[in-house]
Amino acid sequence: MPKALNGMDILPQVYKKIVGGRPCALVTGSATIDGSGNPGYEVVRRLAGANLRAIWSLQHGFFLDKQDNMIPSPSFFWSAGGVEVRSLYGEKLLPEEDWLAGVELLIVDPFDVGTRVFTFVNHLVMLLRWLSGRGVEVVVLDRPNPLNGRDLEGALCRPDHFSIVAQLPVPMRHGLTAGEFLSFALSYYGLDVPLTVVQARGWSREEFFSGTWTLPSPNMPSPATAIVYPGAVLLEGTNISEGRGTTRPFELAGAPFIDPAGLAEELRRLKLPGAQFVPMFFKPEFSKHAGRVCCGLLIHVADRKKFRSFQTYYELIRQAARRHPGEFRWQEPPYEFEFRRPPMDMICGSDVIRRAIDGNVPFAGIRDDIEREISVYAESVRPFLLYP
Predict the structure, then answer these.
(1) Does one domain contain both 318 and 188?
(2) SS3 201
(3) Is the backbone of residue 369 left (phi > 0), alpha (psi -120 to 50) or beta?
(4) Are residues 155 and 122 in the same domain?
(5) Is residue 245 in some structural domain?
(6) Average pLDDT in the 199-226 region?
(7) Torsion over CA of 119, 123, 125 and 128, rounded to 10 degrees?
(8) DSSP string of 32-89, one letter each residue
(9) Which one of 75, 171, 326, 333 is most buried, counting C-beta atoms within 10 A?
């Protein structure tokens, strides 16, 4: 089966038609590539020449050298690239007014991972809202959703919990490409932004990622990480390590107080689809419990088509909280520039999940409500789907 082509692969064929000689800025990171392994910024620089006025970078910085959330990246002149790199994740999360001087068009090439809380596409929605009415066109170089475009998981975010990790009422595993996500945002907010999506080719919605995986962020090292991420990210709202500081972030979960064998046995009894639980010990080099041995689990995805990450990690957290009530706790703010609400609520889009776990409610007790929300959501985004 031929691999899908990304929007970046298609761009050279359509560049003159959709960009022409207009001065532009590129929103991307250094690890974003075309299907042949060429850095995206190099592809655009060859096409645009002197008309590429700047690169705008998102969370983790252009070089992906910032490990965690709320670590700002400075703007700088990149001498090797011969271009100004301006940080959208610095002292402010939106551009300065003078960034648009001499810029008629933004080319956007985000590497999204199919999970609502990954900041890139949410940050781009914030950027679209800021651009509304300013007359600057946005061209999105689309990419397939690495988790496929059919399976949806997790509770929807409520509007009173919108933030840089949630700008739309979508479920945790949203099933959209970046182009679809931003098209939905344009309609949802009623924005006045000319938007062109350079569609991927050769991808159908049931397909998972195929191709060369780089590093969309420092703790997203492989497609295996992306598969577990829609549920594993819930661990960020707890004092259980999500494996940051190890070579298996989000696949590992643990804390010094956990009984690995007992937790594994509890989860096996639940017969969670597509998942295996392997008792493990690990020592994070940074982040939670840095320098301490954590007792926990490796969550192994035996069948990615059946695996439901949100349900799996919900039950992992519920069982850990039930078994270790004296040691388990929710993390305190701040989290991604939110200073009042619990991080778990920001991640989940409301307090429903946190309260359900506090009440020791099995996932079966909240599944129907989540499925009803997802059904409504699926209908609301249907007009914006670009791929069969």
Answers:
(1) no
(2) strand
(3) alpha
(4) yes
(5) yes
(6) 95
(7) -160
(8) -B-TTS-BHHHHHHHHHGGGEEEEEE-TTTTTT---STT-----EEETTTTEEEEESS
(9) 171
Task: Quote the pTM value.
Answer: 0.96
Cβ–Cβ under 8 Å, residues 281 and 293 = yes
pLDDT on residue 68: 83
Question: Is residue 182 in a domain?
Answer: yes
Considering only CA atoms, which of 136, 26, 42, 157 is closest in space to residue 85?
A: 26
User: Which residues span the domain enclosing 16?
Assistant: 7-215+380-384
The average pLDDT across 75-103 equals 94
Same domain, 211 and 72: yes
Q: Are residues 19 and 57 in the same domain?
A: yes
**Are 195 and 326 contained in the same domain?**
no
Report H helices in 132-248. Answer: 178-189, 223-232
Nearest 5 degrees, angle CA 366-CA 368-CA 374?
105
Task: Report the domain count for the chain.
Answer: 2
- Distance in angstroms (rounded) separating the CA atoms of residues 259 and 267: 12
Nearest 5°: phi and psi at 24? -140, 165
Of all residues in the chain, the percent with pLDDT exceeding 70 is: 99
Residue 93: per-residue pLDDT:
96
Amino acid at 84: E
Mean per-residue pLDDT over the chain, rounded: 96
Would you state the pLDDT for residue 80? 85
Residue 2 is predicted with a pLDDT of 58
> In this predicted structure, what is the pLDDT of residue 1?
45
Q: How far is CA 82 from the centre of its chain?
A: 29
Q: Could you give the strand order of the β-sheet that contains 137-141, starting from the edge strand earlier in sequence?
A: 76-78, 83-87, 52-57, 24-27, 105-108, 137-141, 195-198
- 3-class SS of residue 97: helix
- Residue 281 and residue 336 in one domain: yes
Strand 275-282 and strand 137-141: pairing? unpaired
pLDDT at res. 339: 95
Residues 189 and 227 in one domain: no
Question: Are 192 and 268 members of one domain?
Answer: no
Average pLDDT over every residue of 150-178: 98
